[in-house]
Design a protein that fits this description.
UDP-N-acetylmuramoyl-L-alanine:D-glutamate ligase, 14 strands, 4-stranded mixed sheet, 319 residues, alpha/beta, globular, 34% helix, 10 helices
Length: 319
């Protein structure tokens, strides 16, 4: 299997993947802790450095670009300070901003993480109300203009992906025979993603989407997910336990990670590489294994990282 994946890595180059969804700017504040606050029993972090990275749909696009694909990032942008930081980051990571829709009153979502003592101490989410925009006509124009090989719906429930938007994208994609891979948000009902070619939840997301109050065996969980949503396949990620692909058969893919440092962005890598693999002629199981290798690299890095073909080749050579 590894030899087949290696032989097909070159096919990933140039594949156009539309990434439709919420864009988040990740802010990292790095510092050190030397004392406890006199105001409350909490550590005082002395900030030494601030770094910004691409998050959510933008990070998925980054993963596609790093693997040689062409991401078509479709989302909302504003004119705020966060946007002025976001655009240079997109350009630096070979992601075009030309398909983003600018709204003057739109505020960029930010996740701020405070890191000290080699661990995340705190996360602050800045989630403005961005639910008033209807953009499917723009999405449709972009999809029609470009020869898209696959579509990723990156749903963080920040206001971009509404039910009508989701239904219209899936209807358009199915009519054009373009696979749509949905990375779901656990606050949705699973029927929200009905008709998607594939769903890629993690364990917690799958249980919440199905409104399950008790744990189920993994095999039953993926089958219930597929039955409830009508997908052709389901890729369920299990953290340190690997992942399960269900495509009429159940395939367990064990993790290759020896030590997890930071899981930030691992799900983005999975959906990006899995979709890129499918679009490039890899089988579903080959694509899932490729995604697993990519995630095994990302969780050993601090912050949302992205693998390259050379990194994948190195990981495979060591397994």
């Amino acid at each position: 299997m590894n030899r087949i994946i290696l032989s097909k890595l070159k096919n990933l180059k140039g594949k156009k993947i539309a990434v439709i969804g919420d864009i988040i700017l990740d802010k990292y504040v790095y510092g050190e802790v030397n004392r406890i606050s006199p105001e409350a029993p909490v550590p005082v972090v002395k900030a030494n450095n601030i770094e910004y990275k691409l998050g959510a749909a933008a990070n998925v696009a980054k993963n596609i670009a790093y693997m040689g694909g062409v991401p078509i990032l479709i989302g909302l942008s504003g004119t705020d300070q966060a946007t002025s930081i976001l655009f240079p980051l997109l350009n630096k990571n070979s992601i075009s901003s030309q398909y983003l829709i600018e709204k003057k009153d739109f505020k960029t979502n930010i996740k701020e993480r405070v890191i000290a003592l080699n661990q995340q101490m705190l996360r602050i989410d800045y989630d403005p109300d961005n639910n008033k925009y209807k953009i499917f006509p723009h999405i449709k124009k972009v999809l029609e203009k470009n020869h898209i090989d696959a579509i990723i719906i990156e749903d963080y429930n920040k206001g971009l992906i509404k039910k009508s938007t989701m239904e219209n994208i899936v209807r358009f994609a199915n009519k054009k025979n373009i696979p749509t891979i949905s990375d779901p948000h656990p606050t949705r009902n699973i029927s929200f993603y009905k008709g998607s070619f594939c769903l890629t939840p993690n364990l917690n997301e799958a249980e919440q989407l199905l409104r399950i109050k008790k744990s189920l065996p993994y095999e039953e969980l993926v089958k219930r997910t597929q039955n409830a949503c009508g997908n052709k396949m389901v890729l369920l990620t299990l953290g340190k336990h690997g992942m399960i692909l269900y495509d009429k058969k159940v395939h367990f893919i064990p993790t290759k990670v020896k030590k997890v440092y930071d899981v930030t962005g691992a799900g983005d890598t999975v959906v990006a590489l899995f979709t890129l693999g499918l679009a490039s002629g890899l089988s579903s199981i080959e694509s899932a294994i490729l995604a697993n290798y990519g995630a095994s690299y990302v969780v050993t890095q601090l912050g949302a990282a992205a693998p390259t073909p050379d990194i994948i080749k190195e990981i495979i050579s060591n397994n």
